[in-house]
Amino acid sequence: MSLFLQLLSNGIIQGVMIACMAVGFGIVYRSFKIFHIALGAQFIFSCYAFYFFTSVFPLPLILAILMSIIFSIAFGILIEKAVYYPFYKKHCSSGVIMIASLGVLIITENLIALYFGNQVKTISNTLEPSVVFAWLRFTRIQLIQLFLGSGIFVAMGILVSKNKIFKTVWAMGDQAELIPVLGLPLLKIRMLIISVSAVMISVPALLISYDIGMDPHIGMHYLLLAAVAVFFGGTDKYWAWGIGAIVLSVLQSLTVWKFSARWIDLVTFAILIFVLMFRPQGLMGTRTRLEED
Amino acid sequence: MNYFLHLGVMIAIYIMLAYSLNLVIGYGGLLALSQAAFYGIGAYAYTLVSMHLGLSFFPATLIAMFVCGVIGCLFAMAVLKFRNETFALATIGFQMIVFVILYNWTPFTKGPYGISGIARPTFFGLTIESVPQFFIFVVIIALLVTGIMKILYISPFALSLKALRDDEKAAQTLGISPYRQYVRAMIICSAIAAIPGACFASYVTYIDPTSFTLQESIFIASILLVGGSGNLKGPTAGVLLMLLLPEVLRFVGMPNAVAANMREIIYGLMLILLMYFRPKGIAGAYAFK
Question: Smallest CA–CA separation between B264 and chain A, in Å?
Answer without folding.
Answer: 7
